[in-house]
Please model this.
Amino acid sequence: MALRIGVIGAGQLARMMIAPAVELGLDIRVLAEDEGMSAQLAATAVGDYRDVETVRRFAAEVDVVTFDHEHVPQEVLRALVADGIAVHPGPDALRFAQDKLEMRARLADLGVPQPDWARVESPEALQSFLDAHGGRGVVKTPRGGYDGKGVRVVDNAQDAAEWFDRLESGDALLVEELVPFVRELAQQVARRPSGESVVYPVVETVQRGGVCAEVLSPAPGASEKLIEVAARIGREIAEGLGVTGMLAVELFETDDERILVNELAMRPHNSGHWSQDGAITGQFEQHLRAVADLPLGDTSLRAPWAVMVNILGGPQNATMGERLDTVMQKHPSAKVHTYGKDPRPGRKVGHINVTGDDLDDAVYEARSAAACFE
Amino acid sequence: MALRIGVIGAGQLARMMIAPAVELGLDIRVLAEDEGMSAQLAATAVGDYRDVETVRRFAAEVDVVTFDHEHVPQEVLRALVADGIAVHPGPDALRFAQDKLEMRARLADLGVPQPDWARVESPEALQSFLDAHGGRGVVKTPRGGYDGKGVRVVDNAQDAAEWFDRLESGDALLVEELVPFVRELAQQVARRPSGESVVYPVVETVQRGGVCAEVLSPAPGASEKLIEVAARIGREIAEGLGVTGMLAVELFETDDERILVNELAMRPHNSGHWSQDGAITGQFEQHLRAVADLPLGDTSLRAPWAVMVNILGGPQNATMGERLDTVMQKHPSAKVHTYGKDPRPGRKVGHINVTGDDLDDAVYEARSAAACFE
Model:
């Protein structure tokens, strides 16, 4: 019988695991939040991932549980582990992706380079941190943020007053120094439960409005030292936090050539979508191999350059299908990945990958192809 | 609403259409012969493809009908067309893939180079052909053969006596000269209903026991002239027979540098599996684009060489899953494609693709990886 992999959550990340699961002969089953989700094709159950009995019933029918997102509550995860179910990444790793304060504290213990930060329980504590860091900082809610939500650049503690008001007793906000970065990078790592890990080349990510817009792989102009340091940081975090499956480490590169950890994701991540077409083993296949504790695949590049551009918002006055015709007509070498989602402003509804020998050509081609969906 | 593509037949070819359909956001639906078939994940109906009402009901829920195999009877195909349903390839093209005598006659009309052949209704007629061609020939049943079945090399008309005995009145066998070929080639072509066509580079196919064992892409040592002639023959056949979707043309290369058409398949074909990992647009994505009348994709190679080796028979004393671990451990760069089929001797249960800069290395790697399943 084929190995059964259960994915909690039916978004586009679960959807993009379907293709490699079919190729490898793995039996992928998805617990969907609702009908008609992105990963509908592989959905075998519909229910609330916060409900322990719903998740237990789903998990009883699979050999390993993994995730489309990091929002499954700790008590649900721990109930599965107590039932003897293989959960990857496990609750002890996932809590560092679920809580940014825990993440910062743990990375500090590991000695991983990161921005100055503090746990602040009051506007006064925040103001002290700001005063000590040039009067500005980045305030984050420790939990539930994504794509720029729950993140605010402030130059005054009052800018975060409403978040403090909403804090429950004993809780706190995270404040980080505003890093004078020259660009953002991301490091993908895969790690098996048995300990084997592989790294992808560090990539450059371009954010617009707090959302990933483009990824260039490998990071243009990256020195051997930068590549090595990013890979080492990635492996240290994967190992130190006990991550199983894919790990994405978002990084700042400063003008004095330091790299500092910004955010973590313990799953296939937007910054790794280029690997579907740009690497021998794409991150979705790699995630399945890692969580199934199968030997990991070759992370070599298929071409000197791979460029990913997100399709944000989607078509303004046409269907995705109509735009598909246009992009295929104009850009026969662009690889189109769609998420089966209705377009709405700012929503990620797909992405384009282009590989090639020339970076400028690949960027132009990928941007032009994505623009067909505007 | 996403374009709905209905595939008749749930074998591995339908299975391998699932991944590109998901990527492109096409709604793939499969009419399966039975439960638990290779393309089960996308099966939305189970029934007999020879039953016109079963197929009609299935076809009523899709925008275009295509195929996993060429066995759907003409009367069923024509009923769909009469209902106004888009069928690709259509019955007028498919009949040339269903009947080798019709194919030979049509290719003769088109002036396409092919082996000498004859329609023979009796052992006497067959013997005359053999006498005129050095005493030997290849006898084929015009319908229903595949993977070497329904094909017999004879040096005496009596060798085909039982086939003549079974012929119905008015039917005949096909006899072809035994071509002194130096190797076998295959040419992949995709053609849209609107007429656009694209070609892949001609590849070398290696058969063992009448079954495709290996494919080398592009055909090693192929001259520009050979590449051009093969592509021209492919396009002429696609155009002349009105093929829509993928067309595979199996070819003999002779020691005097001629190429002669051996067989045709109007669907993604084993000789094109290398393209999943070796070309920008794999043949399964290309088939979907072609039958949906969407613009065709780039057929450029992703690497100088791509090698495909079939996994025949499958594991002797282990499960496919157990062998997956072995092949991943030993061959991290091999791309494993499995069909979700129980192994049995001679059955195609998967294939390995390897791409690279060096042909010998790629062949060695692909063969070694496939050998992990023996």
About this structure: Residues 354 and 365 of chain B are 7 Å apart (CA to CA). Residues 116-176 of chain B form a domain with the Dna Ligase; domain 1 fold (CATH 3.30.1490.20). The first strand of chain B starts at residue 4 and ends at 8. The two ends of chain B are 45 Å apart (CA to CA).
